[in-house]
Amino acid sequence: MRINSFFIFCFLFCGSIFAQEKLSVKEVKGLEEKLQQKNADIKSLQGEFIQTKKLDFLEEPAKSSGEFFYQAPMQLKWIYLSPEPFSLLFTNQKLFIEEEGNTKEIAISSNKLLNKLSQLIAKSINGEMLSDASFTVNYYNEETFITAHLLPEEASIKDFIEKLVLYINPKTLLVEKIKIMENTKDFTLISLEKIRVNETIKDSVFKP
C-alpha cells in the first residue's frame, strides 16, 4: 500500500513568487462575508485535478491527475487515474486507501494528526479552511486570483506545514488551486479543474 502517497498528497507547496498586493481591512471583511455565504451554499463539489510534486532529489517533477468528489459535511474521494490508479476515500471518520484491488481501512478518529489532515483537505476544497482558528489568514491580490495565505498556529501542524495557500477565483469565489509549504525546495501544486457545484453525486462514490 502506498500510504506515503497520502502524506505526499497533503504536502502541497509551490515556491513561485508573484507580485502581491495585500487586501485592505475593508476588502477582507467584504470578501469574507461573500465567502461565508458562498461556502454555506456548497453541498457538493466534483471535478478533475492535476497534481505536480517537486522534490529536491528529483530532476523532474512528478505529475499525476484524476478526479475528486466532495459531499458536505466531510465526505471526500480523491481518485488518481494517471500515472497509476489509486484512490483515497474519507467517510464516517475513516480513511480507505485503495490500490491494485486492495483496500486498507484506517480509523481517523483514533489518530489526531490524520483527523486534522482529513479536515484540512476537505476544508481547503470547499473554502471553509479560511475560518479555521488553527490558522492566521492574510489575503492578497495575485495575478488573476485572490490568494489566502494561511499560517498554522498549532505546533502539531507546524511540524509538517509551513504555509497553506488557497487560490480563489474572484468571480466564482471557488478555490481553484491549493498549495502548502513544506520547505523551501519541495512543493506540490494541485489545480482543480472543471469544477461542478451542487450536482448530484451517486452514493456509491463514497462507499469503500
What is this structure, in a nutshell?
With 208 residues, this protein is α+β, with helices and mostly antiparallel strands. It contains four helices and twelve strands. The radius of gyration is 17 Å and the shape is globular.
Question: Can you describe this structure?
Answer:
- The chain has helices spanning about 5-10, 25-40, 110-125, 155-160, and strands spanning about 20, 45-55, 60-70, 75-80, 85-90, 95-100, 100-105, 135-140, 145-150, 165-170, 175-180, 185-195.
- With about 210 residues, it is an alpha+beta fold.
- Helix content is about 20%, strand content about 45%.
Largest sheet: 12 strands, antiparallel
How many distinct beta strands? 12
Helix content: 10-25%
Catalogue the unreliable spans.
6-18
Strand content: 35-45%
Mean pLDDT: 85
Radius of gyration: 17 Å
Across the major sheet, the strand order is 1-8-9-10-11-12-2-3-4-5-6-7
Topology (elements, then pairings):
Layout: H1 3-10, E1 21-22, H2 25-41, E2 44-54, E3 62-71, E4 75-82, E5 86-91, E6 94-99, E7 102-107, H3 112-126, E8 135-142, E9 145-152, H4 155-158, E10 163-168, E11 175-181, E12 187-197
Antiparallel strand pairs: 1-8, 2-3, 2-12, 3-4, 4-5, 5-6, 6-7, 8-9, 9-10, 10-11, 11-12
Characteristic terms for this protein:
alpha+beta; 12-stranded antiparallel β-sheet
